[in-house]
Amino acid sequence: METKIFPCSPESLALAKQTIEAGEVVAFHTETVYGLGANAFSDEAVLKIFALKGRPADNPLIVHVHKEYDISPLIDGEPPYAAALRKAFLPGPLTMVYPSTGKVSKYVSCGLNTLAIRVPSSPTAQEFLKAVDLPIAAPSANLSKHVSPVTAKHVFDDFDGKIGLILDGGACSGGIESTVLDCTGEVPQILREGLVTREMIARVAGVCGVYRPKTGERPKSPGMAYKHYSPRCKTAYFTREELEKAVVCYREEEKSGSPCFLCESEVCAILGDYSTLDLGGSPEEMARRLYALLRKGEGEATLLIGVEPQEKGGVMAGVLNRMRRAFGAEHGTKES
Ligand code: TXA
Ligand code: MG
Description:
This protein has 336 residues and is α/β, with parallel strands linked by helices. Helix content is 32%, strand content 18%. The protein contains 10 helices and 15 strands. The chain has an 11-stranded mixed β-sheet, with helices on both faces. Helix 1 crosses helix 4 and helix 9 runs parallel beside helix 10 (315-326). The protein binds threonylcarbamoyladenylate and magnesium ion (MG).
């Protein structure tokens, strides 16, 4: 199959609609990362997503809808804070988990009695979702365990010949996946950190928890238990305090291979002549650049050495979660 990459146009949207209605998948731009979408009502179409990605069968999918789509038939009630959160943050990089009415394919939520719903703000995503006017189940458009895609080319690199259409909206401005928020309890609880931060949610809902699975417990967001976002080269990971050790590691690799650092601008400046990939200075910049640099690094280096940025709060919680997991520095979390 030829994999076509088109920007949104009346023709490409008509092709997207026809492809989805035929039970096939379409990759599309969102403001976080590219998604691999299929009709959420169709068992067959949803199963194609799992097969294409090589995704574990116990890792549920997020359903995407356009901003005028009526989600009430899909969800079995909601707590009072949910409406306020929707008003404050949607469309945008926040996924809300509700009690499900079971109307979509049972394969979307993998047997859970909840449903994750997201309203992306990307104009490409909105136009696509409006054209199909269906809930679209979509994980990130990468092969399972690989780094999430933030350009149409990244999607193409993982799925060339395997999917028919990629709706190109350019590079993703957010760069890390949406915040996943459990809205089934008395207070909202973050299952996956992202660009809508705990502080931002607490400002609207009064309070916001962050779920941390206890050792051995099946995580509430099953995806968070998989190794994830991994570049396909060797990796090593150091804190800023361990910079000297990181340099020793670099020199050792240099004897037989081509090492490269991945670190914030300030550390790149200290590292001067060493080969470096610059994550940037602000948390938002680091979120936007992380996945593209992991993919660049795996293509160019034999060993990618991550140096953890100094800042920790707000948006950095999501960036550090992805970075630690990409470098295998955080265990007990997996995703695809
Ligand atoms: O930004 C994003 O969210 C991107 C774009 C494409 O929208 N999508 C994405 O999907 O990151 P995926 O499949 O790579 O990650 C979905 C996450 C996983 O951690 C999964 O376990 C969790 O959402 N999830 C999905 N349904 C859930 C549910 N019913 N309850 C708890 N967690 C759920
Ligand atoms: Mg993913």
